[in-house]
Structures are given as structure tokens and as C-alpha cells.
Amino acid sequence: MNSQANGTIRENAVTSQSLDVLKNDDPRLGYFYHPVALETEITDGWLKATLLDVDWLIVKTFDGSLVAYRDRCPHRSAPLSTGTVCDGIISCGYHGHRFDDSGRCIEIPAIQDQAHIPPTARLEVAYGVICRYGIIFLAPKEPNAPIIEISEATDSAFMAGYLVPKNVRQHCGYLADNFLDMAHFPFVHTQTFGDEATRLVDNYEIISKLGGFTARYAHQFANREDPGVALGERELIQRRELIYTYVAPFSLSLRISFLEADGVNMIGFFISPVRDGVSRLFCILWRNDMNGTQAEMDEAVAFEERVLQEDLLLHEQYKTDGFPLDLRFEVHTKADRITVALRNELRRRLSEDAM
Fold it and tell me: Cα–Cα distance between 176 and 353 in angstroms, integer?
């Protein structure tokens, strides 16, 4: 029997074993683009990245494009990353087999007649690799959702600041849930922007869009970054408008418009499912209130690092089997509409009909 009281919706008690629980190594996630590295991480023409508990070798070809190969030689399953890459040609470090940028084996040193190279001597190639916002996105299979669009990234009025990518002991779903969640601000972010007086979450609208949804919300917060507060020009508690955008499976953005202090802060939050229970976070800030100074952007990045650390101190203490998509597993309130929408969108995108 369902019950509803004081704005709380609760279903019958169930266990995660009986429901659709999304883990970071779920093969259904192979049908999406995922962030795997910063462009600046490519050195010597290649890098190794782990996605969905599979190692990939990302290679810069002779024309500058990127191709991703599973880090496994088809001959004896040796990691290709133990070999070399030169002008886009991969040489396995075990037996010297060489592969061109299509993944086809073009030389086996141990045999005399190279015309008899087995046709199965071919690398597994990912569907696609795209660079966007200084991040490398990899899709193992043909994706059923686009990469999130962030117009501020190409707007000359905005400066960009990058947080250091980091691995986190948490499932991607819960990290996306946290980014969208509005009710935790006063309790988790007590040293940054949270304030006890702003605990109420007012109504907001969720609008479907290609690959996900958007939500618009205005609320009060403690603007400790505003120098006008210290000068007595503005009150600490101010209003800001939040526009959340979500694109499946784990790409999100938040556009923050400061209504009293002016300025816009766009946050891009990209989460990669490395392996079961481990995710990698990529976060970028775009701001138009930095007056063109790198020092101010460095301060903004440091502040955002503190905000993120407050979240991670909580989330790395979780002990879960994964991210439950079935709403019966957890309690949901009216303040959780956006994170319920996340679960519903993921469940729909991961259904057999969507694959």
C-alpha cells in the first residue's frame, strides 16, 4: 500500500536486489558518450583511459583526429598500452604486431608472408571519440543521446576555469543526483553558500529536451563570494536563478544568474563511470564576472573545489550496490522532483526499446 503524508511519498519496502539498480559497469551505458580525459592529458600521441571497467587506448592519428581502441591485442590479449604508438601506428609490446588507424593488423614480424595475416587480427575500435570543452568524450557503441550543449563555452564574454579531475568512490547516478539536488544546500554546504534560513525548496518546472531535461528555479542563498557584502553594499542573503540541464547519462550543467550582484556562473559537470563503485569527475566553470583576470578565476575555481569537497565528504561514505532507478527503493518528496526526473529519464534511456 502506498502512503502520502506531509509531502512525502513512500512505497512498499523493497530491496535493491529486486529492482533495476544501475552500476557503473552496466553494459547499457556503452550506448552513450562519456568523458574520459582532458585533451591536455594526451602526451606522446596517446593515452590510456578506463571506461565501464574496460581499458581503452586513445590515439591521435596522423591527421590529428582521435581514435579509441580497446587496450587488448587480438593475438594473445596483451595490453596494447605496453607497446608503442608512432604516427598513429600501434605496435604491440608482446610480439610486435602492428596495427593501422582502422585497427587492421598490417604486420606480424614472426611470419614471412604478410599476405596471410588473419582477417580476425583486428583491434576493437570504439564508435566515436569527440573533443568538446577541452574534454575527450568516448562512445563504445553508437550513442542514443547527444553530448550536452553549453553555449557559454564559446562566448567570448566568459572565462573558463578547470577543476582538477578526480576519481570518487561513488556511483555516477548518485553524483548526478547530488548535482541536481536543491534540498541539501543548507546542510552540506555550511562553509560555502548554504544557509539554514533557505531550507525551503519552492516549486519549479521541469521541461523535456533532446537527450534529457531542463529545470528553472530561483532561491535565496548566502553569497559569500560577493565582495559587495564585505563592503556593506549588499546583504549576505541574496537571490539567484538556477537553470539545470541534464543530458543522459551523466552530463549536467548549471547556469547561475546572480540577481543582486549581477554576473553569470555556468558550471559543467561531467561524470565518467570508470568501474563499479568508482567514478571520475570533470568540472568546468565559465564566468562573465571575472573582469578578465586569471587571479579571480583561480579564486572561483578554489571556491568551487571547496563546494565539491563538501559533497564528496558525504558521498564517499555511501555503501550502496548501485544507483536504484526504481522509485520504490527510496523515499521521494515534492522537493525531489528533479532527481526523480533523473531516475525516470535514465530508466527510459536504458530500456531495451531505446538501445
Answer: 24
Judged by phi (left if over 0) then psi (alpha if -120 to 50, else beta), residue 315 lies in alpha
Examine the domain organization and report whether 131 and 170 are in the same domain. Answer: no
User: Can you tell me the distance from the alpha carbon of 286 to that of 290, in angstroms, rounded to the nearest whole number?
Assistant: 10
How is the beta sheet containing 8-10 ordered, strand by strand?
3-5, 8-10, 332-333
Q: How confident is the model at residue 19 (pLDDT cuts 50, 70, 90)?
A: low
Complete DSSP assignment for 51-79? ETTEEEEEEE-TTS-EEEEES--TTT---
Confidence of residue 2 (pLDDT cuts 50, 70, 90): very low
Do the Cβ atoms of 276 and 23 come closer than 8 Å? yes
Contact between residue 250 and residue 175 where contact means Cβ atoms under 8 Å apart: yes
pLDDT of amino acid 16: 46
Q: How far apart are CA 97 and CA 289, in angstroms?
A: 54
Residue 95 and residue 98: Cα distance in Å, rounded?
9
* Centroid of chain to Cα 38: 12
Question: 332: domain range?
Answer: 151-354
**Considering only CA atoms, which of 74, 70, 75 is closest in space to residue 55?**
70
- How crowded is residue 312: how many other Cβ atoms within 10 Å of its Cβ? 17
Residue 242 DSSP one-character state: E
- Asked whether residue 162 falls in the same domain as residue 266, the answer is yes
How many CB atoms within 10 Å of residue 268?
25
135/155 same-domain check: no
On whether both 200 and 314 belong to a single domain, the answer is: yes
CB-based burial of residue 121 (10 Å sphere; 0-12 exposed, 13-18 middle, 19+ buried)?
middle
- Could you read off the pLDDT of 277-312 as tens digits, one per residue? 999 999 999 999 887 789 999 999 999 999 999 999
Q: Which residue has the cell 565582495?
A: 227
Overall residue count recorded for the chain in this entry: 355
Q: What is the dihedral of CA 207, 209, 214, 215, to 10 degrees?
A: 0
Cα 81 from Cα 98, distance rounded (Å)? 13
